[in-house]
Amino acid sequence: MTTSDPQPRIVILLPDFSGGGAERLHILLANHWHAQGIKVDFVLMRRRGDLIGLLPDGIGVVDLGVERIREVILPLARYLRKARPDIIIAAMWPLTSAAVVSWRLAGKLGRLYLSDHTQLSISCRPELNMSPWLLAAVMRLTYPAASGLIAVSEGVKQDMCRLGGFADSQVRVIYNPAATDVSPQPEPKSVRQKLWGGGFDHHILSVGTLKVQKDHVTLIRAFALLPASLNAKLTILGEGTLRAELEALVQQLGLQDKVAMPGFVVDTYPWYRAADLFVLSSRWEGFGNVIVEALECGVPVVSTDCQSGPAEILENGRIGRLVSIQDPAALAASITESLKTPVDRELLMRRARDFSVSTIADKYLDYFGLHKES
Question: What is the CATH superfamily name and number for domain 9-177+356-368?
Answer without folding.
Answer: Glycogen Phosphorylase B; (3.40.50.2000)
